[in-house]
Amino acid sequence: MTLFRNGILLDVVRVGSRNGSLEAVRRDTGATVTLRRDYVDSAVELGYATTAHRFQGITVDAGHTVVTQGRLTRELLYVSMTRGHGGNHVDISENEPGHDEPLDPPAQGSWREILCEVLAAEGAERTAHEVQASERLSADSLERLNAEYATSLKLPQPRT
Q1: 9: burial class by Cβ within 10 Å (0-12, 13-18, 19+)?
Q2: For the CA atoms of the chain, what is the radius of gyration?
Q3: Are 95 and 103 within 8 A, CB to CB?
Q4: Which residues pair with 66 in a beta bridge?
Q5: 37: part of which helix (H) or strand (E)?
Q6: Is a pLDDT exceeding 60 seen at residue 2?
């Protein structure tokens, strides 16, 4: 029985005309493998579509990314838009696939708003140095000091 780790990509080079087997080349190692028809029927899926997470480290002829509202961070958009050596394309869906028209059309984002949302969505964890620098900057900011002053005015004052 042939076993592969989930996500292994193969390029089919020949189909067995008599028994329906596939001869394929592994993209990760270049090894040629033969897959029996029963294995292909039960455990093989086409690899034409994948998630942005799985896209990391893969190079394709052309990358096509589908962006929907609230589903992607700027880091994952970067990954998906840098995988194609012949071209990279983005399609922004203003409607959720499979959903009817929204009840409140103005609440639905335009393609520009959806793209801005993705570019503003930071998915990477910040390092301790980045957090420390950010906290130092905000500690003495006039906005923060004003907010603390306003809060202190609302607190009961001690009697003297």
Answers
A1: middle
A2: 26
A3: no
A4: 91
A5: helix 37-43
A6: no
Question: How far is residue 64 from each of residues 5, 34, 91, measured CA to CA in Å?
Answer: 25, 30, 7
Contact present, 52 and 80 (Cβ < 8 Å): yes
pLDDT of residue 141: 86
Alpha-carbon separation of residue 22 from 9, 19, 26, 83 (angstroms): 13, 9, 12, 27
Which tens digits make up the pLDDT trace of 94-112?
A: 766 555 555 565 666 788 8
Structure tokens at 139: 């500690």
For the chain, give percent helix, strand, coil, nearest 5: 35, 20, 45
Asked whether the beta carbons of 32 and 25 are under 8 A apart, the reply is: yes
Q: Please give the structure tokens belonging to residue 39.
A: 């294995």
What pLDDT score does 128 carry? 92
* Structure tokens belonging to residue 46: 């086409």
From 83, 1, 98, select the one nearest 49 (Cα to Cα). 83
Average pLDDT over residues 123-138: 88
Residue 47 scores a pLDDT above 80: no
Determine contact, residues 72/118, Cβ cutoff 8 Å. Answer: yes
- How many CA atoms lie less than 13 Å away from 68 in the CB half-sphere? 7
Residue 74 in tokens: 């700027």
